[in-house]
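Think of the structure tokens as a kind of shorthand, similar to the way a musician reads notation: each symbol stands for something richer, in this case the local conformation of the backbone. In the example below we present two proteins back to back. Begin with the first one, reading the sequence and then the tokens, and try to describe in your own words what changes along the chain.
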Amino acid sequence: MSGRARRTVAVIGGSGITGIFEGRPSKSHRVATAWGAPSAPIEEGEVGGLRVLFLPRHGAGHTIPPHRVNYRANVDALVSLGAEAIVTVSSVGSLRDELPPGTFVLPNQFVDFTKQRPTTFFDGGRVYHVSLADPFCPDLARSAAEVGRAEGTPFAEGRTYVCVEGPRFSTRAESAFFRGFADIIGMTLVPEVTLARERAVCYLCLAMVTDFDVWAARPVELAEILDTMRRNGERMNRILGRLLPRLGAVPSCACARALDDAGV
């Protein structure tokens, strides 16, 4: 894969992102994997001439909670259809005053506080220990940052995402604890990011802040969160429309060699 332009990029849509194609997608794929079915049929279409796959993480109508998403099936299905990079969109809470609702964030690190999710494709047979020292594709992140600035919606870069099990939100004590080492909090990054590395595809998380987590003095009303999600979704769709064709115009990177020295 390395050294040639990407031909297919996948998008996993989270809360607030229900589709990315203008009009109807050209195809819909029902895929079976060794780990079961993905969250929904995978839509295929074109964005700026690039073949793009779209999968709603929580299923049609947002019916699957974060701790029940079949992450292995989702990633495996997208890769089986040719995805060479996966761009994900996630709604998150903020752990920092300087990241208010409406902020877009490009995390470069994560901390895993999930508890019961299958986190690897390698459950037996040959053992692989993939490196996640730098879990997100730097080439994709660089392109996203440039597009965000050009759109007038700059991303906060170099932040840490703490992923919790869900579906409940944090206690105030937990939120204060997480503020000691993270900037944003969500429920869906893990194990997507790990599984993408195990399939040797580029991975990027575009995080959209909907609210301050409960460390903040004033609890946020649900109506405010829903309004922020709506506005975030509109802006994110514009960014994706510019970003995706750009990702197809550059060669694949070192992510494609993630398994080269990871096998025991």
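Once you have a description of the first chain, move to the second and do the same.
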Amino acid sequence: MATFKAIRIDKADKGTTAALTAFDEAELMDGDVTVRVEWSTLNYKDGLAVTGRSPVVRRFPMIAGIDFAGTVAHSSHPSWKADDKVVCTGWGMGETHLGAYAEKARVKGDWLVALPDGLSAREAMAIGTAGFTAMLAVIALEKQGIAPGSGPVVVTGAAGGVGSVAIAVLSKLGYHVIASTGRMAEAGYLGDLGATEVIGRNELSGPAKTLAKERWAGGVDSVGSTTLANLLSMTKYGGAIAACGLAAGMDLPSSVAPFILRGVSLVGIDSVMCPLVPRKVAWGRLASDLDRAKLAEITHEIPLDQVIALGPQILAGQVRGRIVVKIP
């Protein structure tokens, strides 16, 4: 059987190991579509997987990588044929199903979305899971009635992948965006993306009050823990926060006060098992509502053999914007 290049994660005596190596095609898992992977990206969860700092990988051996864009090589699924351009994010890739950091991937056809018109495969992965998650969060705020005229919206983890895309999309839609970051040196970068204001992470990192001064109508949070608790306590009456990450932790040291005294909504965003219809809607919105020039500005390209080295950096919050991975 043929082999192909892949980042393989194996169980070790202590933790896991990750290495770029040859992977036997015979070891690919079941699926009705085989894809020639052309581009992937580096997400926070990928950093956890290649470093082994969190047990996100639950099957061994595993090919890391939670998203890809590429071309269908073989298909027995009625929706797809050879040479179709496709995007795949989530569904347990890189966790329970062999993932995207490889020259080939075999997946279920129901997991795939057609590459949106006007987007290249590289641009799709410049968006990637992080940008897709950001778009789901924006759509959730809209469903809660949060419009540009409702008041400011706050984006935490602003210089990261989710935050960068969220700011770019929200600003293009006409929102007044407040960017929260632990890297104030990135204020210029965030302003170029469309942030009207930039605040330090420390303003949201202390113990949350039951209710604090109302500051924003909505928000997109990828941090969690005390930061999310502070966001809720500062959200205006009838506002909403879309929560999609846990960079600071899974706990939520808050109270019911924002919900029962101000009617605040906390909306959970899951991009992994998101059904197909909202996936298609989100990708369509990304193709139309994301400034392509801004996307290019926040994107940095690396080859597959640099992914493992960058894993610790994305976990440390040292990666700005989006990183696309060129698959050989």
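Compare your description with these statements about the second chain. The chain has two domains: 3-115+298-326, 128-268.
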